[in-house]
Structures are given as structure tokens and as C-alpha cells.
Amino acid sequence: MNQILEIYPSPFNQITDIRYEIPDEEHQRPELKIYDISGRLVKSFQLPTSHLLSSNSVRWDGTDNAGKKVPKGIYFVQLQGSSLSITKKVILVD
To answer: CB of 45 within 8 A of CB of 57?
Structure first.
């Protein structure tokens, strides 16, 4: 299976859906993290263990791990596991 990371819509102003697929042979619990333009971690999502996962999605409402709204700008969504690493850009607008 190809590794997939799709973000829609982008740009977004309230909520964006992040869809991901990972290979069945992935043995490490995958991580989905969002970083700001300076590389600071702003949000992380707990994902199910890989043996339960084929295709899934999470919604990001433009808030950080503390629940505070992050400023508009460019963010990077990173899906990472033992055999994969994918990063995509997402834009938050007013």
C-alpha cells in the first residue's frame, strides 16, 4: 500500500480533515503531529495502533494541544512511523 497523507480543505479557516493510510507492515504506533513555520510542535494526535489501521482520518480545528486557537499561517502536518515519514503543508486563514 502506498503511504497517503491528504489534507482538505487547505487553506482552511475552521476545520480541516487529515486523511492518512499507512502500510500494513508498520509495527510502530504511527504519530501525527502539526508544527508551525518555526518548527514548534503545536498539536499532536493519538492514533490507533497500526494493526488496527488501514485508512483513517482526524479533524484539526486550528487549536494547539492546550486547546487555544493558533494564529493564521502555514503549518506542517507530519505522519511518522518506523517505516514512513510524510510531511504536508496546510494553511490556516481567518
So the answer is: no
> Per-domain residue ranges for the chain?
4-92
Report d(CA 45, CA 23) in Å as an integer.
19
CATH entry, 4-92, from 2.10.270.10, 2.60.40.4070, 3.40.50.300, 2.40.260.10: 2.60.40.4070
The phi, psi pair for 50, rounded to 5°, reads -65, -30
pTM equals: 0.86
Please give the single-letter amino acid code of residue 71. P
Written as tens digits, the pLDDT of the chain (94 aa) is 456 899 999 999 999 999 988 766 656 678 899 999 999 999 999 877 654 545 688 999 999 999 999 999 999 999 987 777 899 999 999 7
